[in-house]
């Protein structure tokens, strides 16, 4: 059995164990209508899929996450490279990043609604906001972690500053950039649910809110399972990207 097959079987066993623990807890320990076992939740998920409701909610949330994440990463990577490469830029911009990154995106929900309303713009803004500072810090740290001997070797071979940056510093920073983006993606899931709970007409957060209002407990757990599955898949995608595109720059991979 190769490594990938063993990993896939390990994941399947892990999820099977999760659902077994869930079933035991719901049927033997808690025994409450507010904590349904897996089978009714699965039946409700199938019904929502057949009606097209679950796909719509997942697509709405995922679209906002990807849009905001792309914008935040597109801003964060160049800023992080500049902060890590140039002292003047670091002195000027570090106070900005250290100030705003401690203001959580959840606290900015009211501001985003005031500025952009309850449409798509407010949710995309929040995802970009929660993404950009994580990516900036990871990228800047990656630039600072570039081995000095590699830089000196390139300079001894006649490389210019631009060549050192493009051929040495930037490739060595890629693992840090992707790791920062991976962490930022997790923050995006937290933020989108909070944003959709407050101001949205669709999405998994809205689905959770409506299910709470009407005490549709199975719908709550369907939304939670959907969020967990999407998060798991996105994290695996980033791990594969890190290994495929950045593994050769990181001896630990």
TrEMBL record:
Tell where it localizes: Cell membrane
Q: Gene3D superfamilies from the xrefs?
A: MetI-like (1.10.3720.10)
Q: Identify the Pfam families for this entry.
A: BPD_transp_1
Q: Which UniProt keywords apply?
A: Cell membrane, Membrane, Transmembrane, Transmembrane helix, Transport
Q: Quick one: where is this thing mainly located?
A: membrane
Where does the record locate the signal sequence feature?
A: none
Transmembrane: present as a keyword of the record? Answer: yes
Q: How is this protein positioned relative to the membrane?
A: Multi-pass membrane protein
**ABC transmembrane type-1 domain span:** 58-242
The record lists the membrane-crossing segments as 12-34, 65-87, 99-118, 124-147, 159-178, 213-233
Q: Which family does it belong to?
A: Belongs to the binding-protein-dependent transport system permease family.
Instruction: Identify this protein by name.
Output: ABC transporter permease
């Amino acid at each position: 059995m190769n490594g990938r097959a063993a990993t896939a079987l390990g994941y399947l066993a892990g999820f099977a164990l999760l659902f077994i623990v869930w079933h035991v807890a719901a049927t033997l320990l808690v025994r409450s209508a507010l904590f349904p076992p897996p089978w009714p939740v699965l039946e409700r998920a199938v019904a929502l899929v057949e009606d097209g409701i679950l796909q719509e909610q997942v697509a709405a949330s995922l679209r906002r996450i990807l849009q905001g994440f792309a914008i935040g990463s597109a801003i964060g990577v160049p800023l992080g490279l500049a902060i890590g490469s140039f002292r003047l830029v670091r002195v000027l911009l570090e106070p900005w990043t250290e100030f705003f990154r401690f203001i959580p995106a959840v606290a900015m929900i009211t501001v985003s609604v005031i500025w952009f309303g309850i449409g798509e713009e407010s949710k995309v803004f929040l995802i970009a906001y929660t993404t950009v500072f994580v990516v900036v810090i990871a990228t800047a740290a990656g630039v600072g972690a570039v081995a000095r001997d590699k830089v000196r070797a390139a300079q001894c071979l006649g490389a210019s500053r631009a060549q050192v940056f493009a051929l040495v510093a930037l490739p060595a920073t890629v693992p840090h950039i992707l790791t920062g983006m991976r962490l930022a993606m997790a923050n995006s899931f937290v933020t989108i649910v909070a944003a959709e709970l407050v101001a949205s007409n669709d999405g998994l957060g809205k689905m959770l809110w409506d299910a709470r209002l009407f005490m549709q407990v199975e719908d709550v757990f369907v939304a939670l399972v959907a969020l967990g599955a999407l998060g798991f898949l996105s994290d695996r995608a980033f791990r594969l990207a890190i290994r495929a595109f950045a593994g050769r720059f990181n001896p630990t991979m």
